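Support request, please re-run this one:
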Amino acid sequence: MAEAMIMDSRLRLLFETGLNDKGEPIYKTKTYSNIRKNATAEQLSQAAKALGELTEYPLAGVERTDNFEIVG
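Re-run finished. Output below.
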């Protein structure tokens, strides 16, 4: 039977940095690699909020990306 083994995780923070000429939001991202594979959504949310407080821009979103290896 095949199994999926997590290889690595990344945390991506999305910041709203302003508005363009059309009044639409402009976003910038910051990605953190080597996130603990067993980190919970709550832990990542708390970390993202803490990191967001250190920037001048408001935190607009948080994403987690996991890469898996399929074995078997």
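The mean pLDDT is 95. The first strand starts at residue 3 and ends at 19.
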